[in-house]
């Protein structure tokens, strides 16, 4: 599913960035070599950051 239409970032792109250490919205953009455009996706990225922080990580 697309999270950021402006930069064509999918939920997989965002989750991958988070798994490799991105801990904030700007760091997710940076990990995907892009910059925020309209900003509408910020809430969705923050939600994924929270979800992945609180969910147990596979061993």
Can you characterise this structure?
A hairpin with a 4-residue loop joins β1 (2-4) and β2. The protein has 59 residues and is mainly alpha-helical. It has helices at 11-19, 25-31, 42-54; strands spanning 2-4, 9-10. It has a two-stranded antiparallel sheet with strand order 1-2. The protein is globular, with a radius of gyration of 11 Å. It contains 3 helices and 2 strands; from the N terminus they run ββααα. Helix content is 49%, strand content 8%.
Structural topology:
Layout: E1 2-4, E2 9-10, H1 11-19, H2 25-31, H3 42-54
Antiparallel strand pairs: 1-2
Helix pairs in contact: 1-3
Strand content: 5-15%
Widest β-sheet, arrangement of strands: 1-2
Overall SS class? mainly alpha
What is the CATH architecture descriptor?
Orthogonal Bundle
Q: What is shown here, in short?
A:
This protein is mainly alpha-helical. Helix content is 49%, strand content 8%. The chain has a two-stranded antiparallel sheet.
Question: Which properties best describe this structure?
Answer:
two-stranded antiparallel ribbon, mainly alpha, globular, 59 residues, 3 helices, Arc Repressor Mutant, subunit A
């Amino acid at each position: 599913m697309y999270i950021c239409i402006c930069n064509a970032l999918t939920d997989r792109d965002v989750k991958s960035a988070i798994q490799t250490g991105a801990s904030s919205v700007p760091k997710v953009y940076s990990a995907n070599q892009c910059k925020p455009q309209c900003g509408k996706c910020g809430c969705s990225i923050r939600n994924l950051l929270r979800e992945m922080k609180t969910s147990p990580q596979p061993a």
